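Example for tutorial group B:
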């Protein structure tokens, strides 16, 4: 296990533990997204994701994208990210969020983990759904765009 992988896991585990012990989940989200990561080789794909938000500003968001690498090989990118929303109840307009986590690239049977940092903007995070765009780093410079559907006041565990 590389130093980067151990350090990334150590940083993400407290966020995941906090989400698991949250009193109630105020929203569940489903997303469709497209992802481009510019590295050697680049990755271009599309996929789905889920997210759970607490009653504060926190979101845990696993997502999966299937696509091709720049060398033509089929591949997968999987993310698990923690997002901190600056204005989670905004029902119109855009709001900014930032976050981090882990991303894993699977190419030709090889699994390579990376630390992930993102900065994003999404439409109406307090509404029923909205577009989003993210820039960040994690296995290369990356750009993600998509749409999130939200169910607010979702029951807790």
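The residue assignment follows.
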């Amino acid at each position: 296990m590389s130093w980067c992988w151990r350090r990334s896991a150590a940083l993400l585990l407290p966020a995941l533990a906090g989400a698991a012990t949250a009193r109630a989940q105020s929203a569940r989200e489903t997303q469709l997204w497209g992802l481009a990561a510019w590295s050697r080789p680049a990755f271009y794909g599309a996929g789905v994701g889920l997210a759970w938000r607490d009653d504060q500003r926190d979101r845990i968001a696993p997502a999966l994208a299937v696509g091709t690498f720049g060398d033509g090989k089929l591949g997968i990118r999987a993310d698990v990210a923690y997002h901190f929303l600056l204005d989670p109840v905004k029902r119109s307009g855009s709001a900014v969020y930032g976050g981090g986590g882990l991303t894993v690239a699977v190419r030709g049977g090889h699994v390579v983990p990376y630390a992930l940092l993102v900065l994003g903007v999404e439409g109406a995070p307090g509404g029923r759904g909205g577009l989003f765009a993210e820039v960040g780093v994690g296995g290369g410079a990356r750009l993600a765009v998509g749409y999130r559907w939200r169910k607010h006041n979702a029951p807790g565990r």
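The chain has one domain: 3-151. Compare this with the pattern of hydrophobic and polar residues in the output above.
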